[in-house]
């Protein structure tokens, strides 16, 4: 048993080395395929993160009347924060709003004068609401409108909700995000299938050149496992080597690309790659090994049927 | 030792036949030559013995074993009892002469010590000690065939099946190969060989089976090449 394994391993390595051209061709094709898969993973990540950056910039602002009592503002705030669709609520009190106004217009004398003349704080409190998904703003806005009409009769506390004004841009963004996610998913799926098929076919061709050898091995009484073993090992070796090579190529590309993505997408691909290196290593080498192993097993099985 | 019982092989069109009702037997330690025109069914006959081809009807027995009832998973095991030699040598191109012979032993599950001992012996028997580490592409036709014979005998099979072993060889290489086969037969191994070569048959003076259109037409104990 042990001798058998040792012989299969040795035959695998010797075969790999002696048919170096075929090995090299297979490794090269698989490397390109794995590089495509790796890039796909990175692009996907870049898209996701830039979309979430965009999403985090979308919010609904509720402006309260300056005269609104603090308890009622707090009640609305709590009710909104309790909604399942709401990710984040930022509260800006009247005083803070005034403070911010002062800071912004400190060099504008007319504005400061106007403020001093009024004598009291003319600004209301504000809450900024962020939803988990852009598509959820609709329902949050509806909830706020209900709150508004409920309290409006006696003395209104909500002065304005800016959703209606932002609605169009929020809707556009929502549909763009959905379209981009769908398109990128389909593109990646197609690329992935193409990469797998091309690698698969290359290994099959490599083994096709050995079909006579397989027949000869059978005729001298080699068992199927003994014949298949070295080819499967070679498939695994192709996978490991091409996976590592793909990572080696990705590295300098990302060193160059990292700062640029940082600039445009506020997301550094290089940092992400280095931070998740284990994930990339396991995925690419794993896919490589799986493709190598499966395709060599299937290809040899074809010629074992003598 | 080998017994063909009314074996026929029809091609898939159902009309033309490669073998028709072939019945004969081979005793242990015999040296049997099978002659006949191309397409007479010689190679098909040998393929039946090594279970590379199946008969349409009839049975082939190896000792008491029905060859075509051996399950697929046991075939490698069965084939290790038979040494095969082919016209086109069928050596593994990526392996040296030594490794080609060693491969047959490795496939057989022999130990490293046995391999280290028997491979040089087999190479010596075919007089190729000095070419052990050459690849097949670096060997002449006669040398390749001698490597193939060394590979066939290294596991001490009960029988050697040789399909036109001299078909691609010049007269001197042919002579050498036939001498080696005869030596192997003298050492106690049954040999079945197909050939086109009249000189080889006349020289051997052993049993000759003559085939024509899938039938055995002559079976002479000390045959001449008659067609």
Overview of the structural elements:
- The complex is a heterodimer of chains A (306) and B (227).
- With 306 residues, chain A is α+β, with helices and mostly antiparallel strands.
- Chain A has 2 domains: 2-54 and 173-303, no CATH class; 66-156, Alpha-Beta Plaits.
- Helix content of chain A is 77%, strand content 7%.
- Chain A is built from 11 helices and 4 strands, in the order ααβαβααβαβααααα.
- Chain A has helices spanning 2-18, 20-57, 70-82, 94-104, 109-118, 137-152, 163-208, 211-219, 224-265, 269-275, 277-304; strands at 60-64, 86-92, 126-131, 158-161.
- A 4-stranded antiparallel sheet of chain A has the order 2-3-1-4.
- In chain A, α1 crosses α2 (20-57), α2 runs antiparallel to α7 (163-208) and α2 crosses α11 (277-304).
- Chain B is an alpha/beta fold and 227 residues long.
- Chain B has 7 helices and 10 strands.
- The longest helix of chain B is centred in the last third of the chain and has 16 residues, at 171-186.
- The radius of gyration of chain B is 17 Å and the shape is globular.
- The model of chain B has no long low-confidence stretch (mean pLDDT 90).
- Chain A binds chain B through residues 3-4, 7, 14-15, 18-19, 212-213, 215-224, 226, 306, and chain B through 50, 52, 73, 75-80, 82, 84, 90-94, 103-104, 106-109, 111-112, 151, 155.
Alpha-carbon distance between the two ends of chain A? 26 Å
What is the β-strand count of chain B? Answer: 10
Sheet with the most strands of chain A?
4 strands, antiparallel
Average of pLDDT of chain A: 82
- What composes the largest sheet of chain B? 6 strands, mixed
What string gives the helices and strands of chain B in order?
EEEHEEHEHHHEHEHEE
Strand content of chain B: 25-35%
Task: Extract low-pLDDT stretches of chain B.
Answer: none
Overall outline of chain B: globular
Largest interface, C-beta within 8 A: A-B, 21 and 26 residues
Percent of residues in helices of chain A: over 70%
The whole-angstrom Rg of chain A is 32 Å
Please tell me the overall pLDDT of chain B: 90
- Portion of residues in beta strands of chain A equals 5-15%
Helix- and strand-based class of chain A?
A: alpha+beta
* End-to-end distance of chain B: 27 Å
Gross morphology of chain A is: elongated
